[in-house]
Amino acid sequence: MSDPVAAAWQQLASLPRPRLSELFADPERLARLSSRLDLPGGAIRFDWSKTHLDAAHIAGFEALAEAVGFKKARGAMFAGEPINVTEGRAVEHTAQRGIGRDSTVEEANALHARMAGLVAAIHGGALGEVRHLIHIGIGGSALGPALALDALTRDGAVVDVQVVANIDGCALEAAFAKCDPATTLVAVASKTFTTTETMTNAMSALAWLKENGVEDPYGRVVALTANPEKAVEWGVDETRVLPFTESVGGRYSLWSSIGFPVALALGMDEFAELLDGAAAMDRHFLQAEGAANLPLRAAFADLTYARLRGCQTRAVFAYDERLRLFPSYLQQLEMESNGKAVKADGHPVDGATAPITWGGVGTDAQHAVFQLLHQGTHVVPVDFIACIAAGDELSAEHHRNLLANCFAQGAALMAGKAAEDPARAYPGDRPSATILCEELNAATLGALIAFHEHRTFANAVLMEINAFDQFGVELGKEIAKSIGTAGAQFDASTSALLAEAGLA
């Protein structure tokens, strides 16, 4: 019996590869591959017309989606079935936004209400004057809050928040320097409440509070965790423990109590708008079919380059200073989710999986890395993200030039330019996609993040891998914990480095 999945991939691999300039001979191309989605925070245009997707590739990928059971997998996720097969867990971050299994949505609403109560109490002075929060976490417990805070607090915040992830003491000291201990709270964000980096930083933060005259440092701590018992055992009063469910993964946890620093800085209403924008994207992803489904369409393009054309990286450039952390956020989301070499059933994958996600902010990146994009030997698919409405109140010339550069780069990558001097020739036919928001606000940001969550999931389903475990991060941590223990043995290089650093 033939394998329909393998047959779908073989059909895709056999398709012709026309140049982008040839594809634009189709007068319907823009209408087919550029879509405007109306959302609570304003419309977003998703333009994938400058990629090599054509009617044949779209039909081929839709056949692949049918063969791998995409609809069933999507439905299983929203129904709360244990699709994280290696850990036997459901994947229910969408329920935090109100879209998912009824019981989980009800629990999420109750936990959000608990968080809202604590936020209101803090804003009302129940814990004394609070002007600063040091939010301590790592991975998803830090990247999501840091992105949202950097994007949404440029015009000020009710409480100033410093996000600390790195165990390097320089990071924590930098946060201390910006905070007054007498008016500072500490949020400790850890799903297990055992993460080495987070708990080490938390203990140092308590010591800093104590050394600076705070009589009850534990009374200044809020715990954000899926293990509330551990937080209480550690010393946090249960009234300041904000739980979230075990079925919410770390890199998908912004929508849960991990979003506490966002709610504290901006207010619960704006946090609710973040959820609403994400929920609108959830509904689109759940209801739209085939290439009309925007995250699935993006996955079709992603796999065109990663698996069919051998592109090893994907670049993301935010032409908006407020989204400067978005590429870093996507690095974890995409590479930790889909950087796998085995399928969900344990068998080896049939081709390349996640490309290396990297990027930066425009226009800075144009003067740093775009040389390689335009004339280098690597073909790198690029995503541009921009906003029509400016985030500043300076001369309109700033934003006009910003957007002009964004659109010009995509046009130049596609068109290229011939020249008699090879050093001045541009090959062109280099793909890009553009995500253009009417404006950047909490709802828009929520929709953007949710779009990429679902894009990542769609990629995983089409590749038949499990996007929701991350065992690859464990081995290095295990070895780090063994350093200095009796009987630990290492290779000659590592042993020499440990001796040089005084850790042997």
Structure notes:
With 504 residues, the protein is α/β, with parallel strands linked by helices. The protein folds into two domains: 4-68 and 288-468, Glucose-6-phosphate isomerase like protein, domain 1 (Rossmann fold), CATH 3.40.50; 94-273, Glucose-6-phosphate isomerase like protein, domain 1 (Rossmann fold, 3-Layer(aba) Sandwich), CATH 3.40.50. The chain contains 19 helices and eleven strands. It has helices spanning 4-13, 20-23, 29-33, 55-68, 70-78, 102-123, 140-152, 169-177, 196-211, 228-234, 260-266, 268-287, 294-308, 326-338, 370-375, 396-415, 442-463, 474-482, 492-500; strands at 34-37, 44-47, 132-136, 160-164, 184-189, 221-225, 241-243, 313-319, 356-361, 382-387, 432-437. The strands form two sheets. The protein has a six-stranded mixed beta sheet, sandwiched between helices. Strands 4-3-5-6-7 form a five-stranded parallel beta sheet, sandwiched between helices. Strand 6, helix 10 (228-234) and strand 7 (241-243) form a beta-alpha-beta unit. Helix 14 (326-338) packs parallel to helix 17. The chain is globular, with a radius of gyration of 24 Å. The mean pLDDT is 97.
